[in-house]
Amino acid sequence: MVLGRLRQGLPGGDSVGRLNGIMKFRLIATSAALLFAGAANAATFYCDPAKGNPDGDGSAERPWRTVEEVLLARLVQFVDLSGTPENPNAPVKPGDTILLRSGWHGIIRIAKGYNNEIITLGADAGHHPQVGWIEIGEGRNWRLKGLTVSPSLSPSPLARTPRSLVSLGERSSDASAELVIEDCFIYSVLDASAWTATDWVEKPHSGIWLGRHGKAHGARNNYILNTRFGINLCAPDCVAEGNVVANFSADGIRVTRDGQVVQYNVIKNNFVGSRDGDDNHDDAIQAFLFNAGTGTLRNVVLRGNLIIARETDGLPFPNGLQGIGCFDGPLVGFMVEDNVVCVNHYHGITLGDAQGCTIRGNACFSRWDGRARPWVMLGQKKNQAKGNTVYDNLAHSFSFKADAEVTARNNQTVTESVFRQKFSALAAAINEKYGKLHPVAKRPRLEPVPEK
Predict the structure, then answer these.
(1) CB–CB of 294/261 below 8 Å?
(2) Closest listed residue to residue 371, CA positions, set 344, 336, 401, 333
(3) What pLDDT shows up at residue 40?
(4) pLDDT at 452
(5) Whole-number mean pLDDT of the chain?
(6) How far apart are CA 20 and CA 17, in angstroms?
(7) Which CATH number is correct for 2-434, 2.160.20, 3.30.70, 3.40.50, 2.60.120?
(8) At CA 292, angle to CA 290 and CA 296, rounded to 5?
(9) Calpha distance 448→313 (Å, rounded)
(10) What is the pTM of this model?
(11) By C-alpha distance, which of 391, 425, 349 is closest to 14?
(12) Which residues contact 250 (CB under 8 A, 6 or more apart)?
C-alpha cells in the first residue's frame, strides 16, 4: 500500500493516529471512486477537431467538431437547481461522457448545470485535446479529465483570458458541489525561460481556482506550470491531491476554508521576490480565511506534500520561499503530517494562533548556505495559541513558546542524510500512486535533490 510505504522510515505517531490517517485516506479515495463512477446506461459522445462536423450526431463515426461548439449549440443538458433541464431535448444528459480527440477545442465555459450524475468532458484514449481556458460558474457533478489547458495554444488570439485558467464554482450559488478537474496539463506558456522578473509578475495566469461557492470541489493529479498562483482552494471541503505546481511566482497552494485537504502534491521552483519588485510573500502552502485575511479556519489536513524551493541550481530570480506558512488564524484542529519541506527560508512549517492542532512526522531542511534554516514553529498574532501537539518532526530548530499548553516530544535536529531518506521515500510513494511521469504533461514530478 502506498500509504504504508509513505510512512516507512518517517517519524511516526501512535497506532491510533496512524489508523486515523489511513481511514481518512481510504475515505477520500473511496469517495473519489464513487464520484467518478458513471451511470450504467450512460452514453458516450465524441468531438474531433480534424474530422468532426458541427452537424454530426456525436457518435464515434460522425463526431461533432469541438467541445466549444457543442456547448454553444446547447447539445448538453443544463439542469437547474430544481432538476428541470433548460434544454430537455439536448442529446448529452447527466451521466454521459463527451470524449475529445486531439486538436484545438476552443474554450469550455458553462454558466450553470446541476447534474444528478456526473457529466465528464475528457480526453479520448490516446488523444491530446487542447482548450484555452475553463470556467464552470456554478453547478454540480462535472468532471474535466486529461486536457491540456493554455491560451498560448490558440490558433489566433482569444477574445479574453481570465486570471485563472481553470475556475470552478466561483458564481453565486452555494449549492454548487463536486466540480472536479483531474489529470490535466495547465500552463500560461510552455517556455518561460525568456521572461524577465517583471514578466513573472505580470504575464503568468494563475492555475486552478476552486471557487468561493459550494463545497467539495477537487483538483487531482494536474500538472500546473509557469503560473502566478498554482491552486486556490476557496470553498469548504475542497481537495487538492497529487498535483504538481512547478514554476510559480507567488503562492503554490492557498487554503482558505474549513475542511480542506491538501495532500501528496509536489510544489517546486519559486521565482522573483521583493528585490525584483514583487511584494508577495511567497509560500508553498499558505492558509488564511478568504476575503477576511485573518480569522478562524477549522479541520484542515496538510499531508504528505513535497516542497522544494529550487529544484536545480542556476534557476533565475531566486527568492526565499516559505514552506507551510499558516500565519493568520486562529487555526483550529489542523493536521499537518508527513510533509517534506526543502526551502531557503526560516518558515519551514509555522502555524499561527493554533488551537488543538497536530504537527507530526514532518521533515524541514535547507540545502543552501545562509542563515535561513527552516524551523517548525507555533506562532501567534492574537495570543490565542493553545493545546497543540507536536511530535516526531525533523527541522533545523523548533519554537513552541507561543503555546504554554503544548505537548511536544521527539522533535529532533535534521541532518542531510536523514532528510534525503525522507525525501526519497515520499517521492517514491507519490510516484507510485500517481505515476512518475504526469499522464498528459509527460514530465517527471520531480528531480532528485541536488547535493549541497
Answers:
(1) no
(2) 344
(3) 60
(4) 66
(5) 91
(6) 5
(7) 2.160.20
(8) 80
(9) 12
(10) 0.91
(11) 391
(12) 206, 228, 229, 278, 280, 282
Question: Which residues does 394 contact at the CB level (< 8 Å), separation at least 6?
Answer: 11, 362, 363, 364, 365, 411, 412, 413, 414, 418, 419, 422
Query: What is the distance, to the nearest Å, from the Cα of residue 83 to the centroid of all Cα atoms in its chain?
Result: 31
Q: What are phi and psi of 25, to 5 degrees?
A: -60, -45
pLDDT tens for 185-222 read 999 999 999 999 999 999 999 999 999 999 999 999 99
Where are the chain's structural domains? 2-434
Cell 458513471, residue? 38
Euclidean distance between CA atoms 274 and 276, whole angstroms: 5
Beta-sheet pairing, 354-355 with 375-379:
unpaired
CA 59 to chain centre: 34
All three cell numbers of 59: 457518435
In one letter, which amino acid is 180? V
Within 10 angstroms of residue 50's Cβ, the number of other Cβ atoms is 10
